[in-house]
Design brief:
The chain is an all-alpha fold and 60 residues long. It has one domain. Helix content is 35%, strand content 0%. The protein contains 2 helices and no strands. The longest helix has 12 residues. The chain is rod-shaped.
């Protein structure tokens, strides 16, 4: 398996990455929301619940 960021051979200390830099790049991507897992659920915005959304639709 190669480093998922730069494709170099992994360094045991930073496995699966080749360096601290590549590990930090990956962490930064996670923190910025660049990785996502597909789901069928709708995201909750500003803490709104589905009940609130349903009630709001009745008035539109």
């Amino acid at each position: 398996m190669s480093c998922p960021i730069c494709s170099k051979d992994p360094e045991p200390r930073y496995r699966p990455f080749c360096s601290k830099r590549c590990a930090d790049v990956d962490l930064g991507r996670w923190m910025q929301g660049k990785y996502a897992i597909a789901t069928e659920e709708r995201p909750v915005v500003d803490g709104a619940s589905d009940e609130f959304d349903d009630a709001a639709r009745k008035f539109h």
